[in-house]
Amino acid sequence: MPSLPSFGGLSGFRGRSAVRARRTESARAPLPVPLSAYVVDCGVYVDGSRLPGRWTHTDAVDEVRKRREGFVWIGLHEPDEEQIQGVAETFGLHELAVEDAVHAHQRPKLDRYDDMLFMVFKTVRYVQNESPSTANEIVESGEIMVFLGRDFVITVRHGNHSGLAVVRKQLENDPDKLRIGPAAVLHSIADHVVDNYLDVTSKIESDIDQMEALVFAPRGGVSSDQIYLMKREVLELRRAVMPLAVPLRRLAEGYTPLIPEQVRSYFRDVDDHLTEVSERVMNFDELLTTLVNAVLATITLQQNGDMRKITSWAAIISVPTMVVGVYGMNFDYMPELHWRFGYPLVIAVILLGCLALYRIFRRNRWL
Questions:
Q1: What CA–CA distances, in Å, run from 65 to 25, 61, 108?
Q2: Can you give the C-alpha Rg of the chain in angstroms?
Q3: Topology of the domain comprising 304-363
């Protein structure tokens, strides 16, 4: 009689199965990504200079608040909700602003939460193409969110073209401006974004001039669809530029004590540059509308010309159709029916009639 398996062997089998199940679950579960993977740079600035060393966000803020001077500048690139939560708890960021910073797709705006500012910038980048008449994309957009406090600046970027390394380097080379504090960083970011607007508008203006030349060329080959595509790209730029005017004006007018008086004049200068960009973008939209109307008018004229040609040839063809139709009837007493030269005479009359109509239409430029 075969022996039954012992309970010890059965429990060992179940134990091995449980271990395999745990290994499978751990293999399927996503590994947590550390915050350092999203941190582009973290610096501590005291008296206009950056302190040496590598800092975590908690060590950096502890250092600043222990010294009771300076500020922290942390740059993040597309963090998720879990990773930004630690920064939000350390600096006391408002949950609504944190949600906007994570999910992006925000309009340019300025919000105030107690002693903190939250500002959104839309960044743009010009996409180089061989010709504006064949381009599928001209403007690529991104976003920069800025949390501004008394002793910290936190920037959250979305998009691969909205880097702030140049801004950070320029500020670190200008200790007098950096000594002002976080407001100077916010101004430099705003100035950098608006300068990019000016650069992009200059390149788009060149594309529109080239497209305008093609529209009025004899065989330019620019379709209304391509102009509508350009209008869509200009609209993308307009959505980035126009809503930013009110936040910049509020910062220039003393909206919050976080922006000292000496920085407000800088924001007025940025607002002036933004006004220039806004006017150029409005002119782009009007010019593209004019080009669309010109293309549609050209198409209408071409269709009218085609209809005149079709009508002219139809009138010419009607002459032999009418004569042949009359002589095709089965009557005995037709003019010149039994004459030897009747057939050549009819053919000659048909040709003369067609030639006369052709000359008339040709003289009136229908053919």
A1: 43, 6, 31
A2: 38
A3: Methane Monooxygenase Hydroxylase; Chain G, domain 1 (1.20.58)
| Residue limits of CATH 3.30.460.20 in the chain | 35-299
Render pLDDT for 15-68 as a digit per residue (tens, 0 to 9).
444 444 444 444 343 434 444 456 888 999 999 899 998 888 899 999 999 989
Residue span(s) of the chain under CATH 1.20.58.340 come to: 304-363
**45, 73 Cβ separation under 8 angstroms:** yes
pTM assigned to the model: 0.73
Report angle CA 152, 158, 162 to the nearest 5 degrees: 80
pLDDT in tens, 266-286: 999 999 999 999 999 989 888
Reported as half-sphere exposure (CB side, CA atoms, 13 A), residue 336 has a value of 11
Pick the CATH number of 35-299 from 3.40.50.2000, 3.30.460.20, 3.40.50.2300, 3.40.50.880: 3.30.460.20
SS (H, E, C) 38-90: CEEEEEEEECCEECCCCCCHHHHHHHHHHHCCCEEEEEEECCCHHHHHHHHHH
Distances (CA, A) of 282 to 1, 234, 240, 278: 96, 9, 13, 6
pLDDT at 220 over 80: no
Q: What strands, in cross-sheet order, belong to the sheet with 109-113?
A: 49-50, 39-46, 71-77, 152-158, 139-148, 116-126, 109-113
